[in-house]
Write a structure and sequence with these properties.
Helices cover 53% and strands 8% of the residues. It is an alpha/beta fold and 354 residues long. It has one domain: Aldolase class I (TIM Barrel). The longest helix is centred in the C-terminal third of the chain and has 25 residues.
Length: 354
Amino acid sequence: MTQTTPTCLWNDSADLGELEFALSHGAVGATCNPVIAHTVLKTHLTDWRPRIARIAEERPTATEDDIAWTAIEDLSIDAARLLEPAFAAHRGRNGRLSIQTDPRLFRDTDSLVRQAEHFDRLAPNMIVKIPATSAGIAAIEAATAHGITVNATVCFSLPQCVAVAEAIERGLSRREALGHDVSSMGPVCTIMVGRLDDWLKFVMEKERLVTDPGHLEWAGVAVFKKTYALFVERGYRARLLSAAFRNHMHWSELIGGDVVISPPSAWQKRFVASDVTVANRISTPIDPAIVDDLYKRFADFRRAYDQEGLQIAEFDTFAPTRRTLRQFLGAGDDLRALVRDILVKNPDTESPCA
């Protein structure tokens, strides 16, 4: 795929071992989020426990939150170093490590921009994730105008993608008007394809709907393909990125586009071992009967699929957005709890003194 099409592979993890595997199979970027960060730190706690303890020792008044975010930054810097050769080879369009802004800031444009500016300074090849919420759209424009390469996240719908692309275009134009070269910036807009599928499956069970269950595997792909065609037609400079994998079509059906595919390591290994043919399918239409069925039965599919399905003011209340934000917020709680267990060990779990 990476050798025969314009489609790029990024790794959906900042785990160094997983990133090294991905790089050996053509990856040229990586993404991270609060869930991934917690998983990496917990999986490699033997390595990270002394690092976190050292951060706490060096910063004796730091809160659990401060220490957790410093660990996330250190994790991201480590991963960014592995991507420096790709960053140089692709002149900034790839070779970047995505670091996500604090999900608690999803309603605060100014705070999102300030954190984006801080993250941008951590390494030359950072790309900052900002949610496609109402406040996030304004933050995406402002950060882009400041020269920060952005990856829009918590995004599931064509209307969100259009709002993101337009915000990036405004930001790039503002920067160009000041005489800055933007050719080395590589903004992307993520569609969390599998999370849209997940939500529609939940709705089907909750509302006791009856349909072909296989149709629900196509919802995210349908939104992605329609959005990609619109991006090409309008000449948006942001690329789309496919994330939240649930089936091979979240990769195989999108090959051929000037897009980014970002599967987690487990899915990459399944793809490498699979007999799925690598072929240009991005422009292959989805069976109209499948799209019609989804469109007829699911109001949230219509909201995600139609260009006017959601207004910016409705982004925060779209069910997949609320569901994902809650998971990301929960992962932040888990990160703080992990730090707490290192700083203040629970005496109830220790052997009593002799």
